[in-house]
Amino acid sequence: MKALETKGFTLIEVLVVVAIIGVLGALVVSQLLRARLATNEASAIGSLRAINTAQQSYAQKCNGYAPVLTELNLAGNYLPPDLTSAASVIKSGYRLTVTVASTGIPIPTLPAGCTATTSSYYATAIPLGVGSSGQRAFATNEGSTIFYDDTGVPPADPIPAGADPIH
Protein backbone atom coordinates (compact mmCIF):
# COMPACT_ATOMS: atom_id res chain seq x y z
CA MET A 1 0.00 0.00 0.00
CA LYS A 2 1.10 3.46 -0.86
CA ALA A 3 1.07 6.30 1.74
CA LEU A 4 -1.10 9.28 0.89
CA GLU A 5 0.75 12.48 0.14
CA THR A 6 -0.87 15.49 1.71
CA LYS A 7 -0.34 19.07 0.68
CA GLY A 8 -1.52 22.18 2.54
CA PHE A 9 -1.62 23.46 6.10
CA THR A 10 -2.86 21.80 9.25
CA LEU A 11 -5.62 23.36 11.30
CA ILE A 12 -3.12 24.33 14.04
CA GLU A 13 -0.91 26.18 11.56
CA VAL A 14 -3.88 28.15 10.21
CA LEU A 15 -5.05 29.05 13.74
CA VAL A 16 -1.56 30.28 14.70
CA VAL A 17 -1.42 32.54 11.63
CA VAL A 18 -4.92 33.91 12.34
CA ALA A 19 -3.95 34.62 15.97
CA ILE A 20 -0.81 36.50 14.90
CA ILE A 21 -2.80 38.57 12.41
CA GLY A 22 -5.36 39.37 15.13
CA VAL A 23 -2.69 40.57 17.58
CA LEU A 24 -1.02 42.73 14.92
CA GLY A 25 -4.40 44.15 13.91
CA ALA A 26 -5.20 45.15 17.50
CA LEU A 27 -1.85 46.93 17.81
CA VAL A 28 -2.37 48.82 14.56
CA VAL A 29 -5.87 49.96 15.54
CA SER A 30 -4.69 51.35 18.89
CA GLN A 31 -1.82 53.18 17.20
CA LEU A 32 -4.21 54.66 14.62
CA LEU A 33 -6.52 55.90 17.38
CA ARG A 34 -3.60 57.58 19.16
CA ALA A 35 -2.43 59.13 15.90
CA ARG A 36 -5.94 60.47 15.22
CA LEU A 37 -6.14 62.01 18.71
CA ALA A 38 -2.74 63.67 18.23
CA THR A 39 -3.76 64.98 14.81
CA ASN A 40 -7.03 66.41 16.13
CA GLU A 41 -5.22 68.10 19.04
CA ALA A 42 -2.63 69.57 16.66
CA SER A 43 -5.44 70.93 14.48
CA ALA A 44 -7.16 72.50 17.52
CA ILE A 45 -3.90 74.15 18.61
CA GLY A 46 -3.33 75.42 15.08
CA SER A 47 -6.86 76.83 14.94
CA LEU A 48 -6.38 78.65 18.25
CA ARG A 49 -3.09 80.10 16.95
CA ALA A 50 -4.91 81.30 13.84
CA ILE A 51 -7.61 82.86 16.06
CA ASN A 52 -4.94 84.64 18.13
CA THR A 53 -3.29 86.03 14.97
CA ALA A 54 -6.66 87.10 13.56
CA GLN A 55 -7.57 88.78 16.86
CA GLN A 56 -4.31 90.76 16.84
CA SER A 57 -4.98 91.95 13.27
CA TYR A 58 -8.59 92.75 14.14
CA ALA A 59 -7.44 94.73 17.20
CA GLN A 60 -5.20 96.91 15.05
CA LYS A 61 -8.15 97.85 12.84
CA CYS A 62 -10.95 97.96 15.41
CA ASN A 63 -9.15 99.12 18.59
CA GLY A 64 -10.21 95.97 20.45
CA TYR A 65 -10.93 92.27 20.02
CA ALA A 66 -13.76 90.47 18.25
CA PRO A 67 -16.29 89.04 20.72
CA VAL A 68 -17.28 86.11 18.44
CA LEU A 69 -15.76 84.16 15.55
CA THR A 70 -18.21 85.53 12.97
CA GLU A 71 -17.01 89.09 13.62
CA LEU A 72 -13.52 88.09 12.47
CA ASN A 73 -15.03 87.37 9.06
CA LEU A 74 -17.39 90.36 8.88
CA ALA A 75 -14.74 92.97 9.63
CA GLY A 76 -12.21 91.81 7.07
CA ASN A 77 -11.89 88.07 6.45
CA TYR A 78 -9.26 87.55 9.13
CA LEU A 79 -10.01 83.80 9.26
CA PRO A 80 -11.11 81.23 6.66
CA PRO A 81 -14.82 80.39 6.40
CA ASP A 82 -14.43 77.02 8.18
CA LEU A 83 -13.59 78.96 11.36
CA THR A 84 -16.07 81.82 11.02
CA SER A 85 -19.27 80.20 9.77
CA ALA A 86 -20.92 80.38 13.22
CA ALA A 87 -20.28 81.60 16.76
CA SER A 88 -19.15 78.06 17.59
CA VAL A 89 -17.65 75.80 14.90
CA ILE A 90 -16.66 72.14 14.80
CA LYS A 91 -13.34 71.29 13.20
CA SER A 92 -11.33 68.05 13.45
CA GLY A 93 -13.28 66.69 16.40
CA TYR A 94 -13.15 69.92 18.43
CA ARG A 95 -15.69 72.66 19.12
CA LEU A 96 -14.03 76.08 18.75
CA THR A 97 -15.62 79.11 20.37
CA VAL A 98 -14.69 82.75 21.00
CA THR A 99 -16.51 84.73 23.68
CA VAL A 100 -16.02 87.96 25.56
CA ALA A 101 -13.68 87.25 28.47
CA SER A 102 -15.02 87.70 31.99
CA THR A 103 -12.81 90.80 32.22
CA GLY A 104 -13.92 92.11 28.82
CA ILE A 105 -15.49 95.54 28.49
CA PRO A 106 -17.38 96.57 25.33
CA ILE A 107 -15.68 99.36 23.41
CA PRO A 108 -18.38 101.88 22.44
CA THR A 109 -16.65 103.83 19.64
CA LEU A 110 -16.09 101.60 16.64
CA PRO A 111 -14.12 102.38 13.48
CA ALA A 112 -15.84 101.84 10.12
CA GLY A 113 -16.29 98.16 9.26
CA CYS A 114 -16.26 96.98 12.87
CA THR A 115 -19.58 95.95 14.39
CA ALA A 116 -18.54 94.80 17.87
CA THR A 117 -15.36 95.15 19.89
CA THR A 118 -14.31 94.17 23.40
CA SER A 119 -11.23 94.77 25.54
CA SER A 120 -10.48 91.02 25.91
CA TYR A 121 -11.56 87.64 24.56
CA TYR A 122 -11.54 83.99 25.63
CA ALA A 123 -11.24 81.25 22.98
CA THR A 124 -11.65 77.54 23.64
CA ALA A 125 -11.20 74.25 21.79
CA ILE A 126 -13.10 71.40 23.47
CA PRO A 127 -13.07 67.79 22.21
CA LEU A 128 -16.45 66.50 21.06
CA GLY A 129 -15.71 63.18 22.74
CA VAL A 130 -13.00 62.98 25.39
CA GLY A 131 -10.83 60.01 24.49
CA SER A 132 -12.35 59.54 21.04
CA SER A 133 -11.86 62.86 19.21
CA GLY A 134 -9.31 64.40 21.58
CA GLN A 135 -8.07 64.12 25.14
CA ARG A 136 -7.04 67.65 26.08
CA ALA A 137 -9.09 70.85 26.00
CA PHE A 138 -7.45 74.19 25.19
CA ALA A 139 -8.03 77.86 25.95
CA THR A 140 -6.38 81.14 25.03
CA ASN A 141 -6.96 84.87 25.42
CA GLU A 142 -5.48 88.17 24.31
CA GLY A 143 -2.11 87.14 25.79
CA SER A 144 -1.88 84.61 22.92
CA THR A 145 -0.56 81.78 25.12
CA ILE A 146 -2.50 78.55 24.65
CA PHE A 147 -3.24 76.60 27.81
CA TYR A 148 -4.51 73.02 28.14
CA ASP A 149 -6.22 70.71 30.59
CA ASP A 150 -5.95 66.91 30.40
CA THR A 151 -9.51 66.34 31.64
CA GLY A 152 -11.16 67.61 28.45
CA VAL A 153 -12.45 70.77 30.18
CA PRO A 154 -10.66 73.99 29.18
CA PRO A 155 -8.92 76.15 31.78
CA ALA A 156 -11.37 78.57 33.39
CA ASP A 157 -11.91 82.17 32.37
CA PRO A 158 -9.92 84.09 33.48
CA ILE A 159 -7.14 81.58 32.89
CA PRO A 160 -5.68 80.75 36.32
CA ALA A 161 -2.03 81.47 37.10
CA GLY A 162 -1.16 77.77 37.48
CA ALA A 163 -2.65 76.64 34.12
CA ASP A 164 -0.44 74.48 31.90
CA PRO A 165 0.78 76.26 28.74
CA ILE A 166 1.54 74.54 25.43
CA HIS A 167 5.31 74.46 24.93
Could you characterize what this model shows?
This protein is an alpha+beta fold. It has one domain. The protein contains three helices and six strands, in the order H-H-H-E-E-E-E-E-E. A six-stranded antiparallel β-sheet has the order 1-2-3-4-5-6. The longest helix is centred in the N-terminal third of the chain and has 52 residues, at 11-62. It is elongated.
Secondary structure layout:
Layout: H1 11-62, H2 69-74, H3 81-84, E1 88-91, E2 94-100, E3 121-127, E4 137-141, E5 146-149, E6 164-165
Antiparallel strand pairs: 1-2, 2-3, 3-4, 4-5, 5-6
Notable features of this structure?
6 strands, six-stranded antiparallel β-sheet, alpha+beta, 167 residues, 3 helices
What can be said about this structure in brief?
With 167 residues, this protein is of the alpha+beta class.
- Morphology call: elongated
> Which structural class matches the secondary elements?
alpha+beta
> Main β-sheet, in a few words?
6 strands, antiparallel
In whole angstroms, the N-to-C terminal distance is 79 Å
Mean pLDDT: 92
Number of helices, where a helix is a run of at least 4 consecutive DSSP H or I residues: 3
**Parts with pLDDT < 50 across at least 5 consecutive residues:** none
Strand order of the largest sheet: 1-2-3-4-5-6
What portion of residues belong to β-strands? Answer: 15-25%
Quaternary state of the chains: single chain
The total domain count is 1
Share of helical residues: 25-40%
Number of strands: 6
H/E series: HHHEEEEEE
What is the radius of gyration computed over CA atoms, rounded to a whole number of angstroms? 25 Å
